Amino acid sequence: MDLPALDAFDASQPQAFYLGPDEEFAGLADAAVVAQGDCKLAVHTHVVSLHSRVLKSAFATGAGAGGAAEGKVCLKAPFEDFSPLTTAAFLRLLYHPDHACPANLKKLAAELPSLVRLADQLDCPGLMAKLDAFLADYADDLEMDEAVASVNFAEKMSLERLRAADIRRIASLLTAKPPEEEQDFFALPAELPAPVLLPVMAAPAAPPAPSPPADTAAKDEEDVLEAAAATSALKGLSPSALMAVLTLCVVAARRCDASKCIPKAGDLFAALPH
């Protein structure tokens, strides 16, 4: 099927974004959804119902219908709260699940939060899993305030992989040493074997490392202020996320180079309770 590029949405032809230019195929649609601005988008119920439990139920019962045209069900909720671009992108990922790959999702970066919310409201487990995995891959690029906001969003949307990756990122930021303070005697494995948390917590503390050069009073004060700023950002975390972050920090503190002891997101995802 000849479809527009994912970064080439045409607001004058929103249906072409997921159905292509084939008017005959669009004419076979047996229902419609209505996005913001009263933008009506044709859908084939047997296609979208395969990927959304909510849509399957809604089309079966007519729930949420906002009127019918030519005998076709027309759903407004929850699409009326989302833009035509978000709605068309969502439908494209339902009609063409293989398009929900990292290279394509990157082109939809600005729409991802809305896509996650829509997929969550419509109970689309397959799409949610792909969005979760994609977002988790970028957690290491986040700054502290971004990571805190991201973990809260992940918990609200039940994005477990993103939550684990965000927790790892926050713990890494809290325990990372400034480059100028890194010493050769901090030579430890970059990864921890799985299972991750319990063996490390049960292990004896590492022998004390040689003392680094003494810092000046000004440098000490700067470090304290930086640490205070970092920990104040944790106020936005849920109790369970905060406990996970602090557990990782305690574990890391028992090793020499704390930042290198934070487990990979995949290992953390497996170890954390869900």
Salient structural properties:
single chain; 274 residues; mainly alpha; Potassium Channel Kv1.1, Chain A; 3-stranded mixed β-sheet; DNA-binding; DNA binding; BTB/POZ_dom; SKP1/BTB/POZ_sf
| Rg (C-alpha, Å) | 24 Å
The major sheet is characterized as: 3 strands, mixed
Number of helical elements:
14
- What class do helices, strands and sheet pairing give? mainly alpha
Overall pLDDT, averaged? 79
**CATH-defined superfamily of the largest domain:** Potassium Channel Kv1.1, Chain A
Main-sheet strand order equals 2-1-3
Find the CATH topology of the largest domain: Potassium Channel Kv1.1, Chain A
CATH C-level class of the largest domain: Alpha Beta
Inertia-based shape: elongated
Structure write-up:
By secondary structure, the chain is mainly alpha-helical. It has 2 domains: 16-20 and 28-137, Potassium Channel Kv1.1, Chain A (2-Layer Sandwich); 172-207 and 216-271, no CATH class. It has 14 helices and 3 strands. The protein has helices spanning 16-19, 23-27, 45-48, 53-61, 84-95, 102-107, 112-121, 125-136, 144-157, 160-175, 197-202, 217-232, 239-253, 265-271, and strands at 31-35, 39-43, 73-75. A 3-stranded mixed beta sheet has the order 2-1-3. Strand 1 and strand 2 form a beta hairpin. The model is unreliable at 182-206 (pLDDT under 50). Keywords: DNA-binding.
